[in-house]
């Protein structure tokens, strides 16, 4: 299926932004390539047949009965779980074994059919869109999608509202800062699987020992001229720039956005910023070809392990964070079993096992203490377990209307030359 068939109904600027995400951005398969590049090539699914019908529930009514199917959970002790590659704890000797999934089956008797078939948000959306638009079961009871795509699924009416009685552990243990995203207030449809952090990073050898501590320094320090990169993900680069300007990306206005673009444009025009990158900044940072950049925290864990000269900084004015989220698709046939699996992962001990295995931020209260017992280095790493002071500096980029999304992406595309 052609890319434009996956993104029918989107404006051209938004379509281009999705294409960047698919090919090189945080939404792409390559975002975990820094961690285990070779393994990521496995399991890349083919796109569903073309010919997408008009969407049903396109208005996103949120009616939990309209998008529900007969729940077979009582008679069929199974759950079909689709996730990204390398995004669950894995046995070092037997890569087919996942301790937390096996523990869930042992505790509940529910068998998990686990599939690593979400290689990027856009491709996966293309796989399931024809079935969801036709009001059909996708064959998946639980999926993991990044917040902006999760928001789209909810808005289209293609995610089922969760039964609070089945996620009581999640309700009580989800950290307060993850409780109420503007695209799913009160977490009625979703729960975080892991958090993603956007920070400043630099190569101490490339800067000759000079610290890089702020976005302002990235944009203005003459010692860094021509050796700085920002990210091609609009929310990440604009979000950090807004924070440096004293603006909250959770409350961004059109004027705020324009001011942030203008500030970045100045740094592009005077050659301070070399380019805007996807996940490919890692090699350049490690080699010292670039001196400093805007980076994703999950990448930096492995980069720092391989190169002790790489440092990361949480800017004093704050950093941007987002989440990958668990959702039950419309018409899923084992909704209760999926909800039980969501709830299972919100036990601190289980969350600690998952966190130790994937190296991303957990949304579960009490995970640090449990993690310290099994992976003390991870528990002490603020890129995995943010300190309270660091967490207080975390900010999200608010949800955008369709009109805003198109307008913002158009302006950002011109900025980065996309």
TrEMBL record:
Protein's name according to its UniProt entry: Spermidine/putrescine ABC transporter substrate-binding protein
PANTHER family on file: SPERMIDINE/PUTRESCINE-BINDING PERIPLASMIC PROTEIN, SPERMIDINE_PUTRESCINE-BINDING PERIPLASMIC PROTEIN
CDD domains reported for this sequence: PBP2_PotD_PotF_like
Keywords recorded for this protein, A-Z: Periplasm, Signal, Transport
Compartment list: Periplasm
Origin: domain of life: Bacteria
UniProt region (Disordered), positions on chain: 53-74
Pfam families in the cross-refs: SBP_bac_8 (PF13416)
């Amino acid at each position: 299926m052609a890319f434009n068939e996956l993104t029918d109904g989107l404006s051209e600027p938004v379509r281009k932004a999705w294409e960047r995400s698919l090919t090189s951005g945080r939404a792409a398969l390559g975002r975990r390539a820094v961690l285990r590049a070779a393994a990521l090539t496995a399991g890349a699914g083919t796109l569903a047949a073309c010919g997408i019908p008009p969407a049903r529930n396109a208005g996103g009514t949120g009616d939990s009965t309209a998008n529900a199917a007969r729940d077979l959970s009582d008679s069929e002790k199974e759950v079909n779980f689709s996730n990204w590659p390398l995004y669950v704890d894995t046995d070092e000797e037997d890569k087919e074994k996942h301790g937390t999934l096996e523990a869930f089956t042992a505790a509940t008797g529910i068998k998990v059919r686990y599939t690593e078939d979400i290689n990027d948000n856009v491709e996966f959306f293309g796989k399931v869109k024809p079935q969801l638009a036709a009001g059909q079961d996708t064959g998946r009871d639980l999926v993991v999608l990044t917040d902006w795509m999760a928001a789209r699924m909810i808005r289209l009416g293609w995610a089922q509202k969760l039964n609070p009685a089945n996620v009581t552990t999640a309700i009580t243990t989800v950290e307060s800062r993850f409780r109420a995203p503007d695209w799913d207030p009160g977490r009625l449809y979703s729960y975080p699987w892991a958090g993603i952090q956007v920070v400043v990073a630099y190569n101490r050898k490339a800067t000759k020992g000079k610290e890089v501590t702020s976005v302002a320094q990235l944009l203005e320090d003459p010692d860094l001229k021509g050796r700085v990169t920002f990210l091609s993900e609009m929310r990440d680069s604009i979000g950090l720039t807004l924070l440096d300007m004293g603006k909250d990306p959770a409350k961004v206005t059109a004027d705020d956005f324009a001011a942030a673009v203008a500030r970045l444009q100045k740094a592009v025009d005077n050659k301070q910023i070399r380019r805007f990158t996807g996940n490919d900044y890692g090699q350049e940072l490690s080699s010292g070809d670039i001196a400093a950049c805007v980076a994703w925290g999950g990448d930096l864990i492995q980069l720092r392990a391989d190169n002790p000269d790489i440092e990361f900084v949480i800017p004093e004015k704050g950093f941007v964070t987002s989440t990958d989220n668990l959702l039950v698709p419309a018409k899923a046939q084992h909704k209760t079993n999926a909800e039980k699996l969501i709830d299972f992962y919100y036990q601190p001990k289980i969350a600690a096992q998952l966190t130790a295995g994937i190296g991303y931020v957990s949304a579960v209260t009490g995970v640090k203490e449990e993690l310290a017992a099994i992976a003390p280095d991870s528990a002490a790493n603020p890129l995995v377990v943010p300190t309270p002071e660091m967490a207080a500096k975390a900010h999200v980029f608010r949800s955008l209307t369709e009109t805003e999304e198109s307008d913002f992406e158009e302006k950002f595309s011109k900025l980065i030359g996309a």
